[in-house]
Amino acid sequence: MSENLLKITNLHVKAGNKEILKGLNLSMNKGEIHVIMGPNGAGKSTLANAIFNNPIYTRTEGDIELDGENINDLKTDERARKGIFMSFQSPEEIPGISVTNFLKSAKTAITGEPVKIFAFKKEIENNMKELNMKEEYASRDLNVGFSGGEKKKDEILQMLTLNPKLAILDETDSGLDVDAIRTVSKGIKMFHNDQNGVLIITHGTKILENLHVDYVHVLVDGKIIKTSTGDLAKTIEQEGYEKYKNMAQHVDDAEKEESANV
Amino acid sequence: MSDKKKTQVEEINRNMYDIRNPEEYSYKTQGLTEDVIREISAQKNEPQWMLDFRLHALEVYEQLEMPSWGPSLHELDMDKIATYVKPKTDMKRSWDDVPEDIKNTFDALGIPQAEKESLSGVGAQYDSEVVYHSIKEDLKKQGVIYTDFESAVRDYGDIVKKYFMKCVPVTEHKFVALHGAIWSGGSFVYVPKGVQVDIPLQSYFRLNAPGAGQFEHTLIIVDEGASLHFIEGCSAPKYNEINLHAGCVELYVKENARLRYSTIENWSKNMLNLNTKKAIVEKNGKIEWVTGSFGSKISMLYPMSVLKGDNSKSEYTGISFAGHGQNLDTGLKVAHIGKNTSSVMNAKSISKDGGACTFRSSVKVTPGATGAKSSLSCESLMLDDISRSDTIPANEIETDDVVFSHEAKIGAISDQTIFYLMTRGISEEEARAMIVRGFASPISKELPLEYAVEMNRLINLELEGSIG
Amino acid sequence: MEKMILNETPVRTARSFHINNIELKDFTMPEIGKFENIQIHNCGKLARGIEIDQNAKLPKPSPSHSLSQELTNQIELNANSNLKIKVNVDAAETEPIMINYTLDNKNPNLVNHISITADENAKAKIYIVYRAQTKQNVLYHNGLIEVNLAKNSSMDLYLVNFLSDISYNLDCVDANLAENSKFNLITVDLGGKYSITNYNVNLVKSGAEGTINTVYLGKKDQVFDINDIASMSGEKTKVSINVQGALFDNAKKNFKGTIDFRKGCKKAKGQEEEFCMLLSPKAVSRGLPMLLCTEEAVDGAHSSAAGKIEGDKLFYLMTRGISEEEARKLIIKARFQPILQLIENEELKNEVLEKMRF
C-alpha cells in the first residue's frame, strides 16, 4: 500500500495583489514521479515556490501537507529539514562559499549532526562523476560563473547529497542541451526510490525519457485541470496547450454558474 | 520568513582584547610643546639631527590645518593625550624576561603561540616602546635587519637618516607632522639584495595607557630582487578617553623587489586611527596591501602606492567592517608615474548597527605614465537601514595611453539568495552570516591562516564546519 | 579680475584630488544688460496645453544644490530672461517646444531663470539651445532651470550648448519628481572655455524615475566641470546617469556624479556610467563617481572608465578597408550614438553632428 507524501488542498496563492494559484489540488504518494506541465504564466513555478514558502508569494487559502503533517506555518528552512528539496530555475550565485563547504553546511543543518568529512567528500566526488561534473567545481564558489548547464547539474548534485523525501524540479531541463538533460535525468533516476517522490515541472519530454512517470498534471490558470498517466506528456508536446486553455475557461464559467446558483 | 529579522552578525566579544594592566610608568608627559619634544628626544638619547627633525615637524604641525573633509575629528584634544608613555621594562631579548602581567596580556592575544610556532621575529610594541623583540638566527645570517626603531636610529643612523620621512614628508598632512614631532617606537626592516624572506615578519602593536597616543614608525626597505611579507596587527584595550593612533609606515620597494604588507586593524572602539602608509615602488617592483579594518571609533587610512619605476605594480585587497559607533573611512591612493605600471584594487565594506563605512580612493596617472593600467572594484554591503555606506573614488588621468576602469556596487543581501539557502535547510540567520562570510572571503584568503582565523572570529560567523 | 569657486561636490574629499570644486582665477563678472535674442516655438502644432509666460515674476530660486550662492543670487536679482512654462494635462499630444537663445555682440550676457511645471499625467518635450553668433566677444551664460513634475507626469528636457570656445557656460538644473513621474535630461555640451554644469534630480516620491544623459566634446583649452546629483528619497525610485565624452588637445573634464540613497528610498535603484575617451596626451580627465547610502534594500552601481580608442576595434574596422582616421571617428560617434539618438528633432541632431566635427 502506498503512503501519501504530498497533499495540497484548495491552494490559493498571490504574488502582490495578483492571484496566481486559484484553488489547486494535488496528491502524491511515496515512490511516485509526477509531472506538471502547463503554458507560461499558468503558475507552475509559483506552485514550487509556494510549497517552499518563498516570501515573494502569499498563501491566502488552502493546505499543504507533507507525510500527513500540515506544513502551512513552517519557515522555508524548516520545510527543507522536513525533507523537501527544490531545484531552482535560476540558482543563486553565492560568492565566497565553496560547493563542498556549502553542501557540508546544508547537510549538517538538515540531519542535525556533523558530517564525516572524508566519507562525505568521497560521496560528493562520486556523485559529481556520475553527473559529469569536473572535480574542480567542488572547490569553486557556489554557482559563481557556472554556465546554465553547470548550475543545473549543481542543483541535482545538491539533491543527491541532501537526499530529500520530496524533490521538486522547476524546469531543470530548460535551456539545456541533450547531453545535459540526459545527465539530469540520470541524476533523478539515481535519486528516486520507493520511499521518496519527484515532482517535475517541465515543458519537454526529453527529461522524462528514462523515467517511469506515474502521473502528468496539466496546470492552466492556477488550477490543475487534467490529470492523466505518463503518455499525456507526449500528446501535449505534440499538440500544445490550446485545448486545455479552453477547458480552463469552461471550468471557470462552470464555477461562476455554480456560485451564481448558491 | 514571515517575521523579517535583521542580520545578526554578533558583536565581537572584546573581553579578551580589553585586558588592562595596572598602570606603572617610569615616565610620562602630557600635551604637546617644544619642551615635551626635547624631553622625548633626550629620553631616547637621540642624535642631534633627529631632535632638529622633530622640532621642524612641530613647526609644520602648528601651521597645517585639520582636514576639511572626512569624519569629524572634533573630539580630538591634543592637550589631553599623553604623547609618550614608556613602560618600566627595558628592552628584552628573551621572552622569559618579559614581566608576567605584560606577558599575560600578550598570551591573550596569541603572541606566544606565534612564537612557539617559530613564526619568525616578533616585534611586539607595548605602549610606546618595544619591550620584546626577537629575530630568528637564520634571518640574521641572511643579513636581514629587523629591529625596533629607536635602536635603528642609534645603530643604523646613516641609512635611517637617508630614508626617514622622505617617502612620507612631514608636510603631507597635519597628523604626519605630528607623527614626525613625537614618533616613538616602531619597526625597522632591511632586506638585502636578492634575499627572499620566506616566513612573514610580524609585529603586534598594542596600546595600554588611558589617553595614550601611539606614534610608531615603520620603515621597511626591500632591496633589489628581494622579497618580504610583513604583518602588522593592532589591538588595544578599551578606555573612556579618546585614544589617538598616528603612526607612519614608509616602504621602499626597490627594483624587482616584492613586498606584501598585511594589516589587521582591531583597535578598541574609542580609538582615532589616523595612520599614514606609503610605498615607493621602483622598476619591476611590486607592493601588495592586504588590509582588514575592524576596530577604532574613527579611521582615516589610505595607504598609497607610488609606482615610480617602469613596470611597477600595486595590488590592494581590503575590507572594512563598521559596527555601532564606528566611522571607518578607508581606501587607497595610487600614483602612476613610471611607464607600463599597473594597479589593481579590490575593496569591500560591511556596515551594520549604525556603523559607517566610507571607501575613498584616488588614482592619478601622471602625464608621462604611458601604458598605465588601473582597475578598481569596490563592493559595499548594508546589513540594516540605520547604517551608512559611501563610496568616494576620485581619478585624475593625464595621459591618453591608459586603460582605467572603476566599478562600484552597493547593496543589501537579497531576499531570494536567503530563500535559496533556506530551501537547503539553513536557517535565516545562518544564511545571512554565511553570505557575509563569503563576501569577506577574498580578503581572508590573502591572510596567513592564524590571521584569517582571527578575522573570521572578528566577523564571528560561527558556521559549524565552515572552515577547512 | 576675481576668484570664483564653483560647483562644490555634495561631499568633500581630499583637496589634493583636485575635484571638490572648480576655481576660476581670472574671471571678471560682466555687466548684465538686456537680453533680447530669444525665440520660442513649437516644431509643429501650436502649443496646446502649454502656457509660456516671458514676463512672469518667478519666485525666489531655491535649488537643492547650485553652482554657487553668488550665481543663484545673480539669477534672483539680475536675470535678464525669465520664463515660466506650465504644461497642462491635455498637452500630451503637442509637439516639442523649442527655445533658442542666441548670444551675440549686442546680447553677450544671458542670465536666465526658467520655471517648468507639469500637471498630473501631463507630458512634454522641451528643447533649450544656446548658440553664439560672435567669435570676438567673451559670452556669459548663467542659467537656472527649476522643474517640478506632478504625479504621473513625464518630461524630456534637452539642453544644447553651442556657445563659442571663449565663453562661460554656467548652468544649473534642479528637478523635483513626484510619484511615478518621469524626467529625462539629455544634454549636449560642446561650447564654452568653461562649461560648468550642475544637474540635480530629486526623486522625492515613490516610483519616480530620472535619467541624466550627457555628451560632451572638448577641444583646445576647453574645461568641462560636470556635477550630477541624484537624490533618492522615494521608495522604488530609479535613476540612471550616463556621461560620455571625448577630449582633444588640452581639454579638461571633471566629472562629479553622486547617487545619494537617502532614508526612505527602499528598493531604489541607481546606476551611473561614465566614459571619457582621451584623444590627446595632454588632455586631462578627472572623475569622482560617488555612491552615498543610508538605506538598506537598495541597488547601486557605478562604473567609470577612461582611455584611448581600443586598438582591436580600430584594427577590426581597418581590416574592412576603413582608414584609421575614419575608423577613429566612427568609434567616437558610436560611443555617443545611444545618447544622440534620444534627440528626436532631426534638424537639431544634424546641427549637433555638424558642430561635433573633428
What does it look like?
The complex is a heterotrimer of chains A (262), B (468) and C (358). Chain A is α/β, with parallel strands linked by helices. Chain A has a single domain (4-261), classed as Rossmann fold (3-Layer(aba) Sandwich). Helix content of chain A is 37%, strand content 28%. Chain A has a six-stranded mixed sheet, sandwiched between helices. In chain A, strands 2-1-4-5 form a four-stranded antiparallel sheet. In chain A, strand 4 (57-66) and strand 5 (69-70) form a beta hairpin. In chain A, helix 3 (99-111) packs parallel to helix 5. Chain B folds into two domains: 25-301, no CATH class; 414-468, no CATH class. In chain B, strands 5, 6, 8, 9, 11, 12, 14, 15, 17, 18, 20, 22 and 24 form a 13-stranded mixed sheet that branches. A ten-stranded mixed sheet of chain B has the order 4-3-7-10-13-16-19-21-23-25. In chain B, strands 1-2 form a two-stranded antiparallel sheet. In chain B, helix 2 (48-63) runs antiparallel to helix 8 and helix 6 (149-155) packs across helix 7. Chain B starts with 24 loop residues before the first strand and ends in a 9-residue tail after the last helix. In chain C, helix 2 packs across helix 3. The longest helix of chain C is centred in the C-terminal third of the chain and has 17 residues, at 324-340. Helix content of chain C is 13%, strand content 47%. Chain C has 358 residues and is mainly beta. The mean pLDDT of chain C is 92. Chain C has one domain. Chain C is built from four helices and 20 strands. Chain C is globular and about 55 Å long. The B-C interface holds B 67-70, 360, 362, 367, 370, 380, 382-385, 387-412 and C 11-20, 261, 263, 266, 276, 278-308.
